[in-house]
Amino acid sequence: MITVRRSTPADSLNVATVHVRSWQRAFVGVFPQPLLDGLDPVTRAASYGPGNPDNFTFVAESDGTIIGFAAAGPANPERDSDPERDSDRARDSDPARDREPDNDGEVFAIYVDPDRWSGGAGRALMDAAVAELRNRGFSRVVLWTAADTPQSHRFYQRYGFHQDGRTSQFTAGAGTGYAATVPIVRFVLPLT
């Protein structure tokens, strides 16, 4: 049975482990393999901080083990491309073009351990994140994902998201010697 609850600071290493394992499977062929092989849960967990108090993270558990997480909150109005501030999405340098309406919520990250894909955890996490954004009064949810990840696109489309034509770029691995920039696309889910 899958349960969803709010994340606590004690969950950081388990969340980071899911994050890394998911990246290492989902992004094969999207990012350089040495970059994926070099991802480390301990390093990833150390990068998690208190962040914006308006943001929130849910974890999915099965038999007491964290098998996925979703992070969300108000859509970022700045759209700067500072990968140190937000490593799961980077935008191009035109903040006016990328400004989100004040009533947009955003799913910043949603990852499930690859051994648990297609088992309901992703849906449960998205349900929790969307419900919380709706309860906070947002009129739609946006998310950005790599353009070349058809499995994630199918998941978002089955959930009810649609691509709205917005694209940008995301760079991962800065400072590793294996940095790569990939195109990303935006999906939108109306809540009203």
Word description of this protein:
With 192 residues, the protein is of the alpha+beta class. It has a single domain (2-139), classed as Gcn5-related N-acetyltransferase (GNAT) (Aminopeptidase), CATH 3.40.630. 29% of the residues lie in helices and 31% in strands. The chain contains six helices and seven strands; from the N terminus they run E-H-H-H-E-E-H-E-H-E-H-E-E. The radius of gyration is 16 Å and the shape is globular.
| Estimated share of beta-strand residues | 25-35%
| CATH class label | Alpha Beta
Give the termini distance in whole angstroms.
31 Å
CATH second-level architecture? 3-Layer(aba) Sandwich
Task: Give the count of helical stretches.
Answer: 6
Major beta sheet summary: 7 strands, mixed
Estimated radius of gyration: 16 Å
**Mean pLDDT, as a whole number?**
87
- At CATH level 3, the topology is Aminopeptidase
Structural class: alpha+beta
Helix content: 25-40%
Catalogue the unreliable spans: 79-99
Overall geometry comes to globular
Side-by-side strand order of the widest sheet = 1-2-3-4-5-7-6
Tell me the total number of β-strands: 7
Output the helix-strand order. Answer: EHHHEEHEHEHEE
